[in-house]
Amino acid sequence: GRVLHVVGTRPNFVKAAPVVAALRTAGPDQFLVHTGQHYDERLSHIFFRELGLPEPDTDLGVGSGSHARQTADLLVALEAELTARAPALVMVYGDVNSTLAASLVAAKLGIPVAHVEAGLRSFDMSMPEEVNRRLVDQLSELLFATSPEAVGHLAREGIAADRVHFVGNPMIDTLLTHLDRFDPAGARAAHGLPERYGVVTLHRPANVDDPEAAAVAVRTLTEAAAHLDLTVPLHPRGRAALQAAGLADAPGVHLLEPLGYVEFMGLVRGAAAVITDSGGVQEETTVLGVPCLTLRTTTERPVTVTHGTNRLVGHAELVPALDKVLDGGGVAPVEGPPLWDGRAGARIARVITEWLERHG
Ligand code: UD1
Ligand code: UDP
Hints:
6-stranded parallel beta sheet, binds uridine-diphosphate-N-acetylglucosamine, 360 residues, isomerase
């Protein structure tokens, strides 16, 4: 039985790396297909090198476009690829357009799908990711959940319990594997940051696509930067809008290109606070014990609030919340979410291996 992994974006690479590694030990033949949804060196290749992912067997080179255009291109390219490779199982990760397209193509070809990071729900269908998550879970044969809430969501959506496996969080496997390489002092020095600084990432459409939303975000961050120097590795989405709104000119704001994983996590590890709208960063800060202020109204990762350092804040609440964090309040040491122990990849590999023995 051959397993074919489909990845396409930065967060996919971080989640797939430990699964590919664990399955290598377990033995089935593996193919790694890169859709090319992310293609810049700094959003793509750097992760393959740093995380020890094998070179993709195929890069479909799909690239950017509107949702319809990108998804359509993904569907066509993936149909040809999956037909030619004829795997026993397709593995998909997270909630991006590549994840949805791969699941849909596999389902129509009659190839079972395994979804890593199943069951997350923000209950906000205006997020493209929420649409993707719901559909992918309906199409999946095996569903790997990172939290007990996720298992509950899947049960309520009528997904049979024997297809759902609570395995922990592969993104945290990657973090724990590379922890010794995260060097806050080195990363801080490389970017000329003071000893006390914050890290900001923003790329959600709701925060950066519309010029008015971008202007609100820039006003909030400008005010925050008067309290704490902020380093901002900017995703290409929103770079233009945030710059047009004057982000580069705000005193205390240090704009950067997107960073590689090791350098980024070095900065996060040493940060006094992180301000973000990312999914993965909410999880990583929880495990590193770094206060995280999430500039969103919902989260699909509530376990980072109940068992971690995360807090959802509106734009008006950000600066007071930041002040509180800087005064040393608000973040007690946390135990962390259950099973976020670096063994998720191994648990997934065991389920897959057993499944292949029966079906593959
Ligand atoms: C995608 C995911 C999002 C995820 C994010 C992780 C979807 C719907 N969204 O968002 O859930 O949080 O990845 O980073 O799948 N671009 C480049 N270089 C690249 C790739 C993109 O410059 O290598 C630019 C293009 O202008 C493109 C824009 O970024 O139009 C958006 O890229 P896209 O892949 O459509 O979505 P992301 O915003 O990256
Ligand atoms: N990341 C990185 N460099 C950066 C920003 C992010 O290496 O400059 C990593 C980090 O591990 C993060 C992951 O990429 O968790 C995915 O980030 P992103 O916010 O793009 O995606 P999301 O989790 O929101 O889908």
